[in-house]
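Weekly structure sync, notes
Attendees: PL (lead), two postdocs, one rotation student
Agenda item 3: pending single-chain targets
PL asked that the sequence for the first pending target be pasted directly into the notes so everyone works from the same version. It is reproduced below exactly as submitted, 196 residues in total.
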Amino acid sequence: ESSAASDVYKRQVQSCGNQEGKNVESAAGHDNSDGHHDSDKNHGQSSDSHSNVAKTGKDELIKDYLELKNALTKDDEKKASKIAGKMVETIQGFDSAPYTESQQSEIKDILETSLEHSEHIAKSPIAHQREHFKDLSVDMIDLISITGNSTMLYQQYCPMYDNKKGASWLSADSNIENPYYGSKMLSCGKVEKEYK
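Predicted structure, written out during the meeting:
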């Protein structure tokens, strides 16, 4: 049995990152048609419900996201929970005032689902954290397509995660450190896009 498991692992590692023709949804345009930002929950994103929350912006949110990604690459469930809790506060304080009305509407949708994913990550075991991190990563990619970014970011992709459906994430480094598999397949993936 362990030999069979080892063979599956070897096949996964060998195929990881070797799908050059893999078509990954571009972050250039925000397509909400799949409903990934639909939410039947109101997380209190109205401006008056968080009047005591410090104003935050894209830089703080991306910083928290990258710290969360790093915790998952290290298989650190407790640190990921703690950072996700901080991310909840950052999302609640996000200031969308500098953006157009249309952008604010898109940002609100993104932040609502980001908040939900962050809340789940804060209170879940690592496998469930990673499931929500996949959707949170889509949110962060969508967010920077609207807000831009202040530092170089790399969109990276692992074709193996989620039963070979694949998953993307953002990184501040071009070196691959896979948050979906951590130490099991740390270098699984490739850079799909650069955000300068």
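Discussion points:
- The beta strands are 153-158, 167-171, 190-195.
- The helical segments are 2-15, 58-73, 77-92, 101-122, 126-147, 161-164.
Action: rotation student to compare against the earlier draft before next sync.
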